Amino acid sequence: MLTSFIQLYGNLYYIPLYFISVRDFSPIRTGIALFPVLFSLLPSAIVVGNLISRFNAFRGAIWAGWVITTLVSGLMLLWNEHTPTAVWATILVIGGIGHGLLLNGQNIAAQAICKPRDEGAAATMYALLRGFGMAVGVAIGGSIFQNVMKIKLRQLGLPEEIANQAESYIPVLHQLPDGLPLKESLMGAYVYGLHGVYGSFCGIAGLAGLVSILLQHYDLNRKLEGEHTLETTAWPIPNVSKSERHDHASSR
Q1: Which residue in 146, 232, 218, 233 sits closest to 189, CA to CA?
Q2: pLDDT score of 107
Q3: Rounded CA gap, 251 and 246, in Å?
Q4: Is position 40 within any domain?
Q5: pLDDT digits (tens, 9 = 90+) for 59-96
Q6: Are 19 and 170 in contact (CB under 8 A)?
Q7: Residue 217 predicted with pLDDT over 90
Q8: Is residue 232 included in any domain, yes or no?
Q9: In the predicted model, what is the mean pLDDT of residues 8-20?
Q10: Number of domains the chain is built from
């Protein structure tokens, strides 16, 4: 479960970095470029939730989610300075579907696997892992990006300190004239660093998918147990004769 959040929030941070640094997108245009993920993630999560409820099975959604997420992370290695819009938009749509399957599938799985009366603790743990995955995903991706980018800068004979300030160096990068060999080399270094991040996420997703094969089936049709229950009180109905009801209606 933690791995899916590392994947999700890591991608949501380093995909915009690709658009801002390599493609020279503005922040607004970068937000628009993320629409394919949002427009596919939410519907897929709704659909898979209904399917899980109908067929009483969540393992297929989790397995399919990891397969799609691994595939998408691998396809991101094709991104460079000249990737067509149709290509990266299609990859983002597929990635949103994969994350939608994982998020809803694992949320339902947490409720099904937990012991009776532990449903509240399971929901709390799910929220805790979501926040922790956000921090870990961005931190791991940042370390990988900087170290891999340093390797490329070292090969090109450029200062390695640029990798430590990669985000703040983006405005300087875009001010360089197009066609300048230095700018093309720096662009290649950014792409190389991002490929390191996407490749690492691909390996993490593949490993998590293999581990998920061991996931067992749990019945979703379970009785909710708890310390607090709702009881209904049956108030006694007074025995009123027909004549009394008729007199009451006439008086009204």
Answers
A1: 146
A2: 84
A3: 9
A4: yes
A5: 899 999 999 999 999 999 999 999 999 999 999 999 99
A6: no
A7: no
A8: no
A9: 89
A10: 1
Supply 77's token pair: 């290695």
CB 27 within 8 A of CB 155: no
Question: To the nearest whole number, what is the mean pLDDT of the chain?
Answer: 85
Q: What is the CATH number of the domain that holds 98?
A: 1.20.1250.20
User: Three-state SS across the chain?
Assistant: CHHHHHHHHHHHHHHHHHHHHHCCCCHHHHHHHCHHHHHHHHHHHHHHHHHHHHHCCCHHHHHHHHHHHHHHHHHHHHCCCCCCHHHHHHHHHHHHHHHHHHHHHHHHHHHHHCCCCCHHHHHHHHHHHHHHHHHHHHHHHHHHHHHHHHHHHHHHCCCCHHHHCCCCCHHHHHHCCCCCHHHHHHHHHHHHHHHHHHHHHHHHHHHHHHHHCCCCCCCCCCCCCCCCCCCCCCCCCCCCCHHHHHHHHHHC
Average pLDDT over residues 211-226: 77
Q: Please say if the pLDDT value at position 225 is more than 70.
A: no
